[in-house]
Design a protein that fits this description.
Number of domains: 3
Oligomer: single chain
CATH class of the largest domain: Alpha Beta
Order of helices and strands: HHHEEEEEHEEEHEHEEEHHHHHEHHEHHH
Structural class: alpha/beta
CATH topology of the largest domain: Nucleotidyltransferase, domain 5
Mean pLDDT: 91
Number of strands: 14
Shape: globular
Length: 421
Amino acid sequence: MANQSTLRFGAQTDEVTSLLRIVNLVRTGEATTRPEIGRLTGLGRGVVSQRVDRAIEAGFLEDAELGPSSGGRAPRVLRFRSEQARILVCALGALHIRVGVTDLDGRVIADDHAPWDITRGPDATLDAAIEMAETVLAQTGDAPIWAVVVGVPGPVDFSSGRPVAPPIMPGWSGFDVRARFEERFSAPVWVDNDVNLLALSERDRRRAQNVDLIFCKIGSGIGAGLLSQGHLHRGANGAAGDIGHVRVLGSEELCRCGKIGCLEAVASGWALIRDAQRAVAEGDDGALAYFVKNDEELTPEHIAIAATHGDALAISLIQKSARVAGESIATLVNMFNPAVIVIGGAIASAGEVFLAEVRQRVYELSLPLATRDLQIVNSANDPTEPIRGGAQLAIEQLFDATFPRWFADGRPTIQGVLAAA
């Protein structure tokens, strides 16, 4: 690309600012022709033409088909070259690993999934995730990787990419997750809480860039991702939304974090498995007893499925989880005043059995104004949700937060994106 020295971060000119804006206007679909760009930016036709030519020369844009005519010659439509690079997402759960690859528009190209126990520790887990990533990448051609996103089921210091005392991830606290992926893929890496990725996926699915939304995941663990006017609210240190460790009044159950009476110790998947095992030991002989008595692994999904098929024990467990989770969610509603609450996760997959109880508790315990227009809905339960959410995080970081730092190089680098942060 010509005259790169004039485009370096720190010497950013009006020309560079307008050039970056034009690329993003086309990328987001806000403007797809030169006349539309001129109307939105206020730039003259000659300047727009010059900037577009430079964006095409840099490889970000290209001319596509002719657009509709408004009376004169039909304008040429511009398109963002989303296929020029890949985004890699590794979503680590308590009991699984999901890996996916997307283009720069966030479209999933390939993905894979495998059962995995996060308590096996960071070295074994990241080795397995990277091996899966390499297999998936082999299916997607030779386009370069511009970003990697890793989701983990616990609190994360977003600036460093290190988990901080995650209750269900022994051995992970302070582990440099980012470095392992940087070393292997030579691309900028962002690490975030897995529920934040789900919140971003929901924003993208709804095409609601300015939504106030809470995504509550009720699975093996419990957490919430908070979107304020479409932006993730992580809090001062990345702990925002960690509702799994708020106290449940009257509970004396020991939580995996070491404290007594946490929401997770009462309402999470592992807590319901514990309660199911207790009930079977006391004589319950329903559907869940089969797994316990035959020493087969009982999972949160088994409990949710049994509840939807009418098993009395499973229904009682699901409803108990929903009641206490709903009480904590009601507190978030009063404090945060979202427009939408999306409920996801293995336990929430019980559907209306779970959702109806949550709705009842939220409406009982929240202020009328906070619930006046509130929607409480189930997630789409799309297995690629964390992949799509991770891609949205990468796109946001690349093209909103760091674009001026790396545009002149033609592609993001670790040093250009993260070292300058």
